[in-house]
Amino acid sequence: MTDAAVTNPAPQNPAVDDLVQPFQIEASHLRGRMVRLGPALDEILARHAYPDAVAKFLGETMTLAVLLSSMLKYEGIFTLQTKGDGPIKLMVVDVTSVGDVRAYAQFDEEELRKAGDDVDIAPAPALLGKGHIAFTVDQGQHTDRYQGIVELYGKTLADCVQHYFRQSEQIDTGLTVTVGKSDQGHWRAGGIMLQRLPEQQPGAGVQLSSDAEDGWRRAMVLMASTTSDELLDPDLRANELLFRLFHEDGVRVWPPSHLRFGCRCSRERVVTMLSNLPRAEVETMKVDGTDEVEVVCQFCSTAYRFDDAALDKVYEGKGGSSA
Q1: In the chain, helix, strand, coil percent, each to 5?
Q2: Which residues does 5 contact at the CB level (< 8 Å), separation at least 6?
Q3: Long-range contacts for 265-272 (Cβ within 8 Å, ≥24 apart)?
Q4: Residue 284 and residue 270: Cα distance in Å, rounded?
Q5: Where are the domains of the chain?
Q6: Could you tell me which residues are beta bridge partners of residue 96?
């Protein structure tokens, strides 16, 4: 096995990095989450040779996935996936209920080059093209898998997520997400998400009071006032920024949950996968000029290698199956 080592890792400050900060705006009873990603994001992106445009967009996708998963109660894996006909063909982000995050992207270099300045103007259509965004919650074998799918619609991926909530969940959702790269080459990301649920009045159905509407609009204006520098500042704690934004309406925070890079790949899983394939087919996967089969994890770029002796062990008990 060859691990994709990360050189010059980003400095970590557990007080401000790789966390989800739950909060509530007291005056309007709006619930929210703030996410800060530092070394975890940097390690995930450092394991791939992505162009900056792809790395930045995948960073935004990771931030959105963490925000969305943090609003749910689940035990298992939350997955955000985009699939389109643009330069970025596929993005997948997994967030487990214990805070492990992993991600990868598939892209076409030539199409990415042709996208040019359109990436800065409207990144979602420029990079993803036409396609869909999907959200999946997998809580194990004995539970129903939840999945929501909606067409990609909007200039940014955050716009696409807000479109999903309007169309599928009918929940007003406000989002702001930013990703940046430091002069030292380290990636950081930050994001804030606010949601409101319609009030249920007896005998009157679902409706929103004028006070609730005013509170929502005010919260959106205040959230929009935050800057990229504030969201990415490694010296500005999440609760300090939330107080700076919403202190006039009162803001309550709860203990944060922490995030880390974590991939679930293993040699044992690869062995199981290979053993379910005909050996003759596996033999065709040998790297040119070598006698080794190489399987590379798309999420973490770890390479698992198998020579003939290792393959013999994989197929022990299967009669050396070549069918």
Answers
A1: 35, 30, 35
A2: none
A3: 265/297, 265/299, 265/300, 265/302, 267/1, 267/304, 270/295, 270/304, 271/314
A4: 16
A5: 19-261, 267-314
A6: 77
Half-sphere exposure of 298 (CA within 13 A, CB side): 10
How far lies 182's CA from each of 125, 136, 189, 231, 256, in Å? Answer: 26, 32, 11, 13, 25
pTM value is: 0.90
- End-to-end CA, the chain: 27
Alpha-helical regions (H) of the chain: 39-46, 52-70, 109-115, 118-121, 123-128, 157-164, 210-224, 228-232, 238-246, 267-275, 279-283, 308-314
Please list, residue by residue across 249-265, b when 16 or more beta carbons sit within 10 angstroms of its beta carbon and e when fewer do.
eebeeeebbebebbbeb
pLDDT tens string 187-245: 999 999 999 876 654 554 445 567 788 999 999 999 999 999 999 999 999 999 999 99
At the top level of CATH, the class of 19-261 is: alpha beta
Residue with tokens 């900056």: 52
Instruction: Assign domain 267-314 to its CATH superfamily.
Output: HSP33 redox switch-like (3.90.1280.10)
Q: What is the pLDDT of residues 144-169, one digit of tens each?
A: 888 999 999 999 999 999 988 888 77
- Note the pLDDT tens digit of each residue in 58-111: 999 999 999 999 999 999 999 999 999 999 999 999 999 999 999 999 999 999
DSSP state of 247: G
Q: Is 194 helix (H, G, I), strand (E, B) or coil?
A: strand
Beta pairing class for 100-107 and 131-138: unpaired
Scan for tokens 């699939």, then name that residue. 83
Phi, psi of 172 (to 5 degrees): -65, 130
